[in-house]
Design a protein that fits this description.
The complex is a heterodimer of chains A (534) and B (160). Chain A starts with 19 loop residues before the first helix and ends with a helix. The longest helix of chain A is centred in the first third of the chain and has 36 residues. Chain A is an all-alpha fold. Chain A has 17 helices and no strands. Chain A has one domain: Cytochrome C Oxidase, Chain A, CATH 1.20.210.10. Chain B folds into 2 domains: 98 residues, PH-domain like (Roll), CATH 2.30.29; 51 residues. The longest helix of chain B is centred in the first third of the chain and has 24 residues. Chain B starts with a strand and ends with a helix. The chains are: A mainly alpha (534), B alpha+beta (160). At the A-B interface, helix 5, helix 6 and helix 7 of A face helix 1, helix 2, strand 6, strand 7 and helix 3 of B.
């Protein structure tokens, strides 16, 4: 018989369940972080499969692998899966793993909410993917979901809207948990300006998420009510305006781009100092630059829609505000470069991905500046130049940063080292093929090839073939990544607590693998001071 | 009568004022955006923002509730009392010091936290559930010195 127990309740997350319960009822930040990353990996490969199908269709002019409707569905689902299914959950997974370790907290502030925010995702992802299998197929209106086109897809339309709602709810719950954890569970002595840049980047990202997710929720809800309940928010026949949807969507959409890339800035700010064996150059400037980028993201949405016919004054405003983003971004690129300057550099896989990020993200930034120029944008709008631009930002930008982060922290998570040689193969194959894949798309766009078409004029064939070959190699080379992780976890050599000799920060004071509950003892002042030598 | 009091509470890095400032700024931004869209007739953004702010307020409130959690252990020559307080309730458990014993149960795995209890005559009370592992182990050592084993009542002056 149990003894009478007169107690304050002991939080359940402090006991490690076994078997499937460990995952279904998980409240530990590391378990939930792992689940987020696995989910993101599955979505990455599903979205990648859609990308392979797209590149196969575009391999040469006149290919008829899919009819145009299916092709447009593949384009739409590729974007939705990659943005909402892969990159965002991957960042939340990394936040779950690293933020408590980096701020000296035992766990996330609201562990049960954390469980809920993850477990919404598989249902949302399933709903999204299963829209392929309903009559009429998946929506083919692009990830921007512009009405009235978006409303013309049968049963899959409400499925995708509900999936977006669920994914948004999950993001909001995750963001709220991250904000509260950073604000309330920092170890004594961990002041805001001592926090690692990854934590800072996530604090600002979470704030952005909290600000813009209701806008997306409202927008897709209005699409739904226009379609099923006879409202006319965006229905021109009823007095609404489809252009208003573009405004509301891009008011969400542009900060969303920064939601995808700001955590990458944080990761790169962790990796470069480690492998340069120097403190980060201009820590405070990096914090303020990140905050400035976040602020500016609210006032630039119009540059996505210069061609709708907005007043010249508005075009000027959006052009200039967009160009202004180059200033804080330039500060960041300068500071990363200055950190490497005269550093004792070594090029392990995380650093290779970080350096590739630095070069290739900057290319994406420059093409973004070109697109910010109104007269130029009138030429580039709706062409493959735009596709090349945002893929340079999101693939060698966000995706490379996620891969670099996993290579950076995997020894800490697993307690084992991965195969460096294979990881370098993964890097070189990825970095060469990603350029073969996306760089020719600049030429195609400048030559006038429109985006979102299932077939094209024969003069675009050569560069499309090159691009597709790059795509296939890039896709195949990503299969190395789960294999490297699997081999590391199964049979990697034991890793030291600080596998990278230049690594600073609280997470490296913990043993490898990190204990089930991080920081059962608050970090000492000496550890905090060492970690804060940014 | 010799008396020793130990008050333990969890760590919070956010003050109530800081939380209010943060929450107000988030509300101003999110509801402000919703209000501007409502002015243009796109009112469904506003309730979504409102719901989200309610959730954020709840999350901050729950997390700040840690501040109200305290446990006060009072040890006299005769008794050991544990008073547990949270935001809404307070309860006190009193043990006879002579029969009380301090137990630190080891976790099943070295990665799991321990649990510290004071037990006597079939009753037990957990203390320091919110403490970190080393703090809890330190508290256990101190309590053992003060309370002693069963059938022991060391002078309180020794444990000070």
């Amino acid at each position: 018989m149990d003894q009478p127990y007169e107690s304050t309740a002991h939080a359940d997350h402090e006991h490690k369940p076994h078997g499937w319960r460990r995952w279904v009822f998980a409240t530990n930040h590391k378990d939930i972080g792992t689940m987020y990353l696995i989910f993101a990996g599955v979505m990455f490969f599903l979205g990648g499969a859609a990308a392979m199908a797209i590149r196969a269709q575009l391999f040469k002019s006149g290919m008829e692998l899919f009819d145009p409707g299916v092709y447009n569905s593949l384009v739409t689902m590729h974007a939705l899966l990659m943005i909402f299914g892969a990159v965002m959950p991957a960042w939340v997974g990394l936040a779950n793993w690293m933020i408590p370790m980096q701020i000296g907290a035992p766990d996330m502030a609201l562990p049960r909410l954390n469980n809920l925010s993850f477990w919404i995702l598989p249902f949302a992802g399933t709903l999204l993917v299963s829209s392929f299998f309903v009559p009429g197929g998946a929506p083919a209106g692009g990830w921007t979901m512009y009405p009235p086109l978006m409303e013309q897809f049968g049963a899959s339309f409400p499925m995708v809207v509900f999936a977006i709602h669920l994914l948004g709810i999950s993001s909001i719950l995750g963001a709220i948990n991250i904000v509260v954890t950073i604000m309330n569970l920092r170890a004594p002595g961990m002041s805001l300006l001592r926090m690692p840049l990854f934590v800072w980047a996530w604090l600002i990202t979470a704030y952005l998420l909290i600000a813009v997710m209701p806008v997306l929720a409202g927008a897709v809800t209005m699409l739904l009510t226009d379609h099923f309940f006879g409202t006319s928010f965006f229905n021109a026949a009823g007095g609404g305006s489809p252009v208003m949807f573009m405004h509301i969507f891009w008011f969400f959409g542009h900060p969303e781009v920064y939601i995808l890339i700001l955590p990458a800035f944080g990761v790169i700010s962790e990796i470069i100092p480690t492998f340069s064996r120097k403190p980060l150059f201009g820590y405070e400037a990096m914090v303020y630059a990140t905050a400035s980028i976040a602020f500016l993201s609210f006032i630039v949405w119009g540059h996505h829609m210069f061609t709708v016919g907005m007043p010249v004054a508005a075009q000027l405003f959006f052009m200039l505000s967009t160009m202004l983003i180059a200033v804080p971004t330039g500060v960041k690129v300068f500071n990363w470069t200055a950190t490497m300057w005269r550093g004792s550099l070594s090029f392990e896989p995380p650093m290779l991905f970080a350096v590739a990020f630095l070069f290739l993200f900057t290319i994406g930034g420059f093409s973004g500046l070109m697109l910010a120029l109104v007269p130029a944008d009138y030429q580039y709008h709706g062409t493959y130049f735009v596709v090349a631009h945002f893929h340079y930002v999101l693939v060698p930008g966000a995706v490379f940063a996620i891969i670099g982060a996993i290579y950076y922290w995997l020894p800490k998570w697993s307690g084992r080292m991965y195969d460096m040689r294979l990881a370098k193969w993964h890097f070189w194959l990825s970095v060469i093929s990603v350029n073969v894949l996306f760089f020719p798309q600049h030429f195609l766009g400048l030559a006038g090839m429109p985006r979102r078409i299932a077939d094209y004029a024969p003069q675009f064939t050569d560069w499309n073939m090159v691009s597709s070959i790059g795509g296939f190699v890039f896709g195949a080379s990503q299969l190395l990544f789960p294999y490297i992780i699997w081999r590391c976890v199964r049979a990697g050599k034991p890793a030291e607590a600080r596998p990278w000799d230049g690594a600073r920060g609280l997470e490296w004071e913990l043993p490898s693998p990190a204990p089930y509950h991080s920081w059962q003892t608050p970090p000492s002042e000496a550890m905090l001071a060492h970690g804060a030598e940014h | 009568m010799p008396l020793l009091r130990i008050v333990i509470c969890p760590n919070c890095s956010l003050s109530v004022r800081g939380a209010l400032v943060f929450f107000s700024s988030a509300c101003a931004l999110s509801l402000g955006i919703g209000a501007v869209f409502a002015l243009f007739g796109l009112w469904p953004v506003l309730p979504a923002a409102g719901l989200e702010m309610i959730l954020l307020g709840w999350a901050l409130h729950e997390s700040l509730a840690r501040r109200h959690t305290t446990q006060t252990l009072t040890i006299t020559d005769a008794d050991v009392s544990v008073e547990s307080r949270d935001r809404s309730s307070s309860r006190q458990v009193v043990f006879q010091r002579h029969w009380a014993q301090v137990k630190l149960s080891c976790p099943a795995s070295r990665l799991h936290p321990s649990r510290l209890t004071i037990e006597s005559r079939g009753r037990r009370c957990e203390v320091g559930g919110f403490l970190t592992e080393e703090e809890r182990r330190g508290l256990a050592l101190r309590l053992r010195r003060l309370i002693g084993r069963m059938n022991e009542s060391p002078p309180l002056a020794v444990g000070r």
